[in-house]
Amino acid sequence: MWAQLSVLSFQKPKNSIKFVHNNIISMSNLLIELKGSTQIITINRPDKLNALNRATIKELSEAITASENNDKVKSMIITGSGEKAFVAGADISEFNTFSKGEAHDLAKNGQDTLFDLAEKSSKPIIAAVNGFALGGGLELAMSCHMRVASNNARMGLPEVSLGVIPGYGGTQRLAQLAGKGKAFELIFTAGMMKAEEALQCGLVNHVVEQSELLDKCLEICEKMSKNSSVAIAAAIRAVNSGYQDGENGFVTEINEFAKCFATGDFKEGTSAFLEKRKANFPNN
Ligand code: COA
Description:
It is a single chain. The protein has helices at residues 2-10, 54-69, 92-95, 100-120, 136-143, 170-178, 180-189, 195-200, 213-225, 229-241, 249-260, 264-274, and strands at residues 17-21, 24-27, 30-35, 38-43, 75-80, 85-87, 125-129, 132-134, 146-150, 154-156, 193-194, 206-208. It is an alpha/beta fold. Helix 2 (54-69) packs parallel to helix 4 (100-120), helix 4 packs parallel to helix 5 and helix 10 packs antiparallel against helix 11 (249-260). Residues 48-49, 51, 88-93, 132, 134-136, 158-159, 162 line the site of coenzyme A.
């Protein structure tokens, strides 16, 4: 408990940490619990359907950074509290009077400090989509490396119904995950996709009963935890590279592949295979 708390304290979140009880860190808008090697980050504003206000975005950014810096953490799960919503969007009450300049800063800061941070995290992040994932909520889920949805989940980018478009990477990541045609349809109609449809178009990896959602995510985390975290981080960089302007994903893959050969994990992984034993990765 204290080791985990000290990592968060190291990030100097100042007033963000309120309380630690039963191994659960409670911040103003988040609950954070380490289960095995998985950091479960729960957005905790159920009365506002976990809408992302600025304070929540800041705390999520701090929690992801702290988890990245904590050697005990190998993966993260982001979910929403309650049974109704993952995140029902950016907090509309915070930006409805914004000017063009303020709107630009809102989208840029959000993308830089949270959505890109999540996507580029060296540790895998799974979005456990437990209900409505709308606007910034779906954008957050799409920034994660994988998505598992409960069968009550509803996903959409309804921004055009408010006279605006997605600003946290939604126009790009939805087209990447579900295809351009699906992205246009979902954005233009401001509709909501059911979990099964999201599964069919590749937006989510799995659909399960709500009661099984966390267990399914933890099962995936458990499988990943047996593998080289150094190689997983390299795979994240290689896959992401193909979606970066001015980068060639194939070239990045060659470089990341070669770098693996100089790691302790590669020596251990290949030796263990040849010696017919389980690998015990040193994580370096
Ligand atoms: N921003 C701020 N507050 C939000 C919110 C958001 N994106 N989404 C929900 N809330 C708040 C509501 O204002 C309400 O607060 P109140 O009780 O103080 O009035 C509370 O959460 C519950 O939402 P409510 O609308 O009463 O629930 P519902 O079951 O009737 O409807 C939704 C659920 C998700 C369909 C509806 O809340 C909604 O359409 N939300 C906005 C979705 C959106 O446009 N997101 C994109 C934002 S860019």
